[in-house]
Automatic annotation (TrEMBL), chain A:
<feature type="transmembrane region" description="Helical">
    <location>
        <begin position="304"/>
        <end position="320"/>
    </location>
</feature>
<feature type="transmembrane region" description="Helical">
    <location>
        <begin position="113"/>
        <end position="133"/>
    </location>
</feature>
<keyword id="KW-0813">Transport</keyword>
<feature type="transmembrane region" description="Helical">
    <location>
        <begin position="332"/>
        <end position="354"/>
    </location>
</feature>
<feature type="transmembrane region" description="Helical">
    <location>
        <begin position="140"/>
        <end position="163"/>
    </location>
</feature>
<keyword id="KW-0812">Transmembrane</keyword>
<feature type="transmembrane region" description="Helical">
    <location>
        <begin position="215"/>
        <end position="238"/>
    </location>
</feature>
<keyword id="KW-0309">Germination</keyword>
<dbReference type="Pfam" id="PF03845">
    <property type="entry name" value="Spore_permease"/>
</dbReference>
UniProtKB/TrEMBL annotation, chain B:
<keyword id="KW-1133">Transmembrane helix</keyword>
<keyword id="KW-0812">Transmembrane</keyword>
<feature type="transmembrane region" description="Helical">
    <location>
        <begin position="34"/>
        <end position="51"/>
    </location>
</feature>
<protein>
    <submittedName>
        <fullName>Uncharacterized protein</fullName>
    </submittedName>
</protein>
<keyword id="KW-0472">Membrane</keyword>
Amino acid sequence: MLDKGKISGLQMAMLLYPAIMATFFLTLPSSTAYYARNDMWMAGILSAFFGVLVIYIATKLHELFPGETIIQQSEHIIGVLPGKVIGILFFFYSIHVAGLITRMYAEFVTGQFFFKTPLLLIIALMVLLASIAVRGGIEVMARCAVIFTPIFIFPLLLLLLLFPDLELHNIFPVLSRGILPVLQATALPQAWVSELFFISFFLPSLNSPAKGRKWGNITLAAVLLSIIYVNLITLFLLGPDAANKTYPILVTFRYISVNGIFENLESLLLAMWIFGNFIKICVFLYVAVVSFTQILRLSDYRPVVFPMGILAIVLSFWGIPDASVLGEYIRYVGPFEIPAVMLLIPLMLLLIALMRRSGTAKK
Amino acid sequence: MNLVLFSFVTLAGLLILRLEWTKMKAKKTRDKSAFFTLLLIVWLLSILDLSNAPGPLTFFEAIFRPFRGWLEK
C-alpha cells in the first residue's frame, strides 16, 4: 500500500457513513415517495441485501489477496492487461462520481442558500479543502471523519422535535399497490448502499483487517437505519406528497418550531450537509487518486492529488448544463451504473478467483 | 468556451506546477509524465464548451438506456 497510515475500524465506519449518506438523504424521500408513495419506508429494508453482498465480496477478496485494493486484485485475478482495464474503469468511475457529488453539493448550496455566489467558487473551495485532506493521507482523513461525522449525524436527531406534528396514520394502507412500486423505489437506495464497496480501498489500511467485515456491516446497519428513519419522518410529516419536493428533508427542517424559539433550523442542515459532503468528496477523491497511482504504479500518490482535484472540478461541469439534467441522471442512470461497477464487476472477479483457487487445489 | 472555468483551471494548473515542481524534480520519469499528462488533459478539457459537450454522462446514459423503462412510471 502506498499510504503507510493505519486507521481503526471505527474510523473506517465514520469515513464510509457520510460517503454514502451525504448527498443522498436530502433527495432520498422524494425519489422513494415518487414510486412507493406511503410504502416508501420499506425501500431501505430491501437494499440491505445488496449491502451485505457488497461487503462480503470486498472482504472475501481481501482475504484471498491481503493488503491489496481491487485495482491490484483484479490484475492478479484476470491478468495484467484485463486487470488494468478494470482498474481504469474504477478510476474513471470514481472521479466521475466525485465530479457529480461536488456539482450536487454546489447546486444545493447555491439553489437554497447562497443565491448569488458563483457555482465555480463553491465547488473550487470544497475541492481544495478535500484535496488538502487527501494529500495529508488516510490518517488525516480518518481524523477529520471522527470529528465531522458526529456533527453530520446530530441534526438528524433534531427531527424528533417534530414529534407532536407527526401523523402516524400516513403509513396506512400498507402495500395497497403491491410490491412492484416498492421494488422500483429500492432502485436508488440499493445503488447508494453498493458504494460500500469502497471498503476495498480502506481494508489494506486497517490496523486489524480481520474486523473489516464487522465494521462494514455496522456501517451498513447505521446507513439502513438512517434511511428508514428519514423516510418515516418525512412520510409522517408530509405524507406521500414528499414526492413533489426537491429536498423534502429541507422542508421538514423548516417546519421545526419549538415554542417559537428554535426556528429556521435549515441553516443547521446546511452546515451538516457541508461536513458530510466534505468527507464524501474526500473519500471519492482518495479512491480516484489511489486507483490512478496503482494503475500506473507510481511511487507516490501525493503529487497527483491536486491535479485530480482540478479534474473533479472540470468533470462537475462536463455535460451538465443545469440541475435538472443532473437530477434525471441520478434517478434513471445511477441505479444501474453504481451496482454495475460496485457489485457486478467485483462479483465476477470474486467468482473467477474462487474457481481458479479450487482448480489449483484439485491439481 | 467557459472563460471563467478556463482561466481558473489555467491559474490553478500554474500554481500546482509552481508548488509541486521542487518535489517532482527528484521523482522518476513515470511519475513526472503522469503528473504532467493529468494537468494537460484537464487544461485541454477546460478549453471546450464543457457544459454543453457530450461527456461521461452521455456515455453512461447510452449504456444503461435499455434499463430505463424499469424505472419510468
